[in-house]
Amino acid sequence: MQLACDRKEAQRNPLPIRTRDVYAEFTVKGGQITMYRRLNVTLPEDTARLLNQVATKGARSRLIAEAIRFYVRHIGRETLRRQLREGAMRRAERDITLTREWFPVDEEAWRRSGK
What we know:
The protein has helices at 2-12, 20-23, 45-54, 60-113, and strands at residues 24-29, 32-37. It has one domain (2-113). It is mainly alpha-helical. The chain contains 4 helices and 2 strands. Strands 1-2 form a two-stranded antiparallel sheet.
């Protein structure tokens, strides 16, 4: 059936351009649909050699996908750490003042509780 459709298509359009199946691909794993897209990426020669050393031709896409996910997670964590550190430094004086103001109240409550 597929071949008959392809022959009819070839008769109608002698130079068909097929991008649907080339550039997008779907797989279903565990009931979840995953879409894949073909990209043309240019890498420095030494990076391409390194990629060829650590991944076989069929595993390059998976390695690149995992590397991108790792990089994004790592950068996200580092950004969060930096923001927390900067926020703590900005609020340090306020936090020390609050601690000094509330310490006697907290200490009194601690004594009354008998602990």
